[in-house]
Amino acid sequence: MRIGLAYNEKPESGVTSDAYAEWDDPSTIDAVEQALGFFGRVVRLEADEFFPQKLALARPDIVFNMAEGLHGPAREAHVPAICEYLNIPYTGSDPLALALTLHKGRTKEILAYRGVPTAPFRVVERVVDLERIPLPFPLFVKPVAEGSGKGIFVNNLCGNPAALAERVLFLLERYQQPVLVETYLPGREFTVAILGNGAETRCLPIVGFDFATLPAGAPPVYGYEAKWIWDTPEHQLAIFQCPLPADASESLQREIERVALDAYQALGCRDWCRIDVRVDRFGVPNIVELNPLPGIIPDPQMNSCFPKAARVAGYGYDELIQEVVRIAWKRITGRVLALSTAAVSA
Questions:
Q1: Which of 5, 125, 176, 305 gives 20 to 30 Å between its CA and that of 204?
Q2: Among 15, 36, 11, CA closest to 26
Q3: In terms of DSSP bridges, do strands 272-279 and 240-241 run parallel, antiparallel, or are they unpaired?
């Protein structure tokens, strides 16, 4: 069996902006390749401008897609769209789901229509549009089509019109895209890793956030600073709780899982996804966003939520990656995929 590995690799150190925050380090790409190697031969397919030609020549039996794409608000949809054009199977969600979930405004429109709780919001294209926003302060703002903490900074929490106008203008100019303005949810935050399709869809153990571990005075926001600046190998943030502490009631956990699964179905996700949830002032879990291309950093000391939840569920890193392939293969073919005899004996 030949498995294509579609990815975007972060450039060498020296880039100080958040431009490549979504892309993967070489160590992650290597770890995924090793896990996939138990099924057969792995063909690396970097998702650059030559990806279509490389994929057409390789013709793998299936593509493991972890590529974030290069340009535009639908960039995460490019690799699966090319796979579909060439009639090559791939893991994960389809182009429509990936395009919708990357655009936070479109995501929330669908969630609201389907009755899945999400914070009230508006999508702003110009600062002047703020004059017509009927939302009470505090408000939180973020670029409408970014991931991995890009454009999400501690001062994006706005307590008055002046702060809101300043941050929206900054984000509009820096990221050259609309800005999502939404009601701030003051409750606890969680993230839910999901595996499967149809009746076999299941949640892995919920990961909670302990914002008390952030630097003194920092607002309870898991944004760019917490992901990429404050959390270092030398000074690690013990921000994640998995399994959850005893003060997270069973009823709250079941409700978090319910709304996460509802969101997964509403956006048409497949095989796997990580969904961020935050509790509003009434104690109701609300969907923040969906991540159908979840981060999968292999190092247990790094704060990568999907592998963390998987370890608590009993999956090693290789087993997690292999489970995603098995789930996708069963969805596509109806058959169970076994590990390569040669790989197992080696």
A1: 5
A2: 11
A3: unpaired
Query: Using an 8 Å Cβ cutoff, are 221 and 158 in contact?
Result: no
- Amino acid symbol at 111: L
Furthest CA-CA distance within the chain = 66
Round the average pLDDT of the chain to a whole number and report it.
93
Closest C-alpha to 138, from 112, 109, 164, 117: 164
Same domain (yes/no): 321, 202 = yes
Q: Judge residue 9's burial from the number of C-beta atoms within 10 Å of its C-beta, 0-12 exposed, 13-18 middle, 19 or more buried.
A: middle
- Answer whether residue 148 is part of any domain: yes
Q: Is the whole-model pTM more than 0.85?
A: yes
Degrees (nearest 5) of the Cα angle 182, 188, 191?
85
Task: Give CA separation, 128 vs 125, 161, 166, in Å.
Answer: 9, 12, 12
Residue 200 has pLDDT above 60, yes or no: yes
Q: Which of 183, 202, 236 is the last residue of a domain?
A: 183
**How far is it, in rounded angstroms, from Cα 287 to Cα 276?**
6
Q: How far is CA 14 from CA 10, 17, 19, 44, 227, in A?
A: 11, 9, 12, 25, 18
Predicted confidence (pLDDT) per residue in 242-267, tens digit: 999 999 999 999 999 999 999 999 99
Q: What is the pLDDT of residue 243?
A: 94
Closest CA to 327 of 261, 271, 273, 264: 271
Secondary structure (3-state) at 153: coil
If asked whether residues 194 and 179 sit together in one domain, one would say: no
Residues 69-122 have pLDDT tens digits of 999 999 999 999 999 999 999 999 999 999 999 999 999 999 999 999 999 999
Residue 149 sits in a domain whose CATH number is 3.30.1490.20
Q: Above 80 in pLDDT, residue 231?
A: no
